[in-house]
Amino acid sequence: MAADAAEEIRGTTHGTAPVPLSVLDLVTVGAGRTATDALRTSVDIARLAESRGFHRYWVAEHHSMPGVASSSPAVILAHLAAHTDRIRLGSGGVMLPNHAPLVIAEQFGTLEAMAPGRVDLGLGRAPGTDGATAAALRRTERLNEGADDFPQQLAELIRFLDDDFPDGHPYRRIHAVPGPVQATSPGGVQSAHRPPVWLLGSSGFSARLAGTLGLPFAFAHHFSAQNTVPALDLYRESFRPSAVLDAPYALIGVSALATDDEKEARRQVLAAALNMVRLRTGRPGLVPTPEEAEAYDFSPMEEEFVASWNSNVVHGTADEVRSGLDDLQKRTGADELMLTANAHGGDVRLRSYELIADAYGLPTPA
């Protein structure tokens, strides 16, 4: 096993947290706010996360959603790299079927050159959007093709990252740059290091694949909670030691929001739930304000959806969130918790991470 790769994957636990804590950023845009506002908030949260000992900061890929400004993770990560020094930065994830593997290898090789030794490449096989938008992204109407070819696309991407296509392969003389080829060129001093690959999933497919390949696994508990334990069990059962890991390592994405007042937490998560109602019914928009959500006339079916959705959002005061996260970690055995705070205002999201850090006694800035 490559010790340095494993060390980059396995985080350090701080304070009284049961496992390392990390951040998943959807770069949400609230009503009355702009994408510029959302991206400034991302910088503020990344800086806070770094100063308080969160292990990594990932950005998700979504498309054609007015309330989510994270369509270009690599661009956002480059921006965050310029405003941070130590925290790991990565994709949670890049949707591999939307892109040519060579392009991803080039983008993340560039990020690795910008922020050496602190870039993660998390990969998913879903489109991160609706079918019509996926067709526009992929220039094809055969949307299942990309997902069905995911293992082959993954293998190709890893070959590009490692620059090790075998002799006779049509891509043998093609190199992802920046990348390892620069270290083997005459006079080359480029580091051969490349970002660790993670597989992301919300069902069993990627769990089994990650286990079989001996890769770290990230599960989307925040929107597929009913599948969390079965998927993690499948990952652990399928795991085979690799050059990357000698034992399974799984993180879960968790929707968590802490506020100074329990009532305010309920108001904020109601607004986020209304946003999901609209998204799931084909009416995506900006994240509504809590006031708009309180005035909204939910149908019985929508109320049922909201109750189900919010039952998997860990929210309340800092102590309540800490207790909920502790219970979730015990129930799932997750090796790392990656927290995503969904709320209308960036100030609320920033405050949530601060409160959670305080509740666990995470390091404070010097």
List keywords for this structure.
366 residues; alpha/beta; 8-stranded parallel β-barrel; 13% strand
Strand content: 5-15%
- Give the CA-based shape: globular
Please estimate the helix content: 40-55%
Element-level helix/strand string: HEHEHEHEHHHHEHEHEHHHEHEH
Average pLDDT reading: 93
The biggest sheet amounts to: 8 strands, parallel, barrel
**Individual helix count:** 15
Termini Cα gap: 36 Å
Rg over CA atoms: 20 Å
The count of strands amounts to 9
Structural class: alpha/beta
Question: How does this model look, in words?
Answer:
The two termini are 36 Å apart. By secondary structure, the chain is α/β, with parallel strands linked by helices. The longest helix has 19 residues, at 262-280. Strands 1-2-3-4-5-6-7-9 form an 8-stranded parallel β-barrel, surrounded by 8 helices. The radius of gyration is 20 Å and the shape is globular. It has helices spanning 3-9, 35-51, 73-81, 101-114, 131-138, 143-148, 150-162, 181-184, 204-213, 228-238, 262-280, 290-295, 300-310, 318-332, 346-359; strands spanning 21-25, 56-59, 88-95, 119-124, 197-201, 217-219, 250-258, 314-316, 336-340.
